[in-house]
Amino acid sequence: MKLRIYRVITGGLLLLCMVMIFRFSAQPASESEQVSGGVAYRIVETWSHLTGTEYTQSEMEAYADRIDYPVRKLAHMTEYGILCLLACAFVHGYSGNWKVCGISAVAVAALYAATDEIHQLSVPGRAGRFPDVCIDTLGAVIWLLLFTALRKLWEKIAKRRGFQYNKNRKNERGDNCGRT
């Protein structure tokens, strides 16, 4: 029963993430640029406050324009990183093998990035570009690698403290999950 609830929750979160990405991609270019430009401006504004640097309005706008592209691409990498981790969690509810989960999750993220770029072809002012698929997939891979490193660190710490994870745990079907 717990496994079924886990699958429903992770599957629901995965679908919610996909819907969120779809809705962001459905924004016309002018609306999307306004949102990312506002975020870039707030970053410059925050940097100004943290460092005590006084910028004029035009300097702040110029710096915001300069960092707008990297901010947008980092946002895409973050979206697809989260999508990848949610896909990994969902697949783990069925497979239990982290390698299978990771490969499947990156594949899901890459395929969704490709379909997202195709979708953007129909949005005013937007374009579907292969480099964007690569950037989104790179974000998924980076987040998966970070997750894997943290998971392995957690397992190492748990082992040192005497916590044993039961690798022979059975799922609700009675199958060996092979969780490691």
Word description of this protein:
With 180 residues, the chain is an all-alpha fold. The chain has a domain at 2-29 and 78-160. The chain is 76% helix and 0% strand. Helix 1 (2-25) packs antiparallel against helix 3 (57-92). The two termini are 21 Å apart.
Summarize the structure.
This is VanZ-like domain-containing protein. The chain has 180 residues and is mainly α.
**Number of helical elements:** 5
Oligomer: single chain
Taking all Cα atoms into account, the compactness measure Rg is 20 Å
Regions with little confidence, pLDDT below 50 for 5+ residues? 171-180
Report the major sheet: none
Going by helix content, strand content and strand pairing, the class is: mainly alpha
User: Total number of β-strand segments?
Assistant: 0
Could you tell me how far the N terminus lies from the C terminus, measured between alpha carbons in angstroms? 21 Å
Domain VanZ-like: 13-150
InterPro entries: Phosphotransbutyrylase, VanZ-like
Protein name: VanZ-like domain-containing protein
Organism: Roseburia hominis (strain DSM 16839 / JCM 17582 / NCIMB 14029 / A2-183)
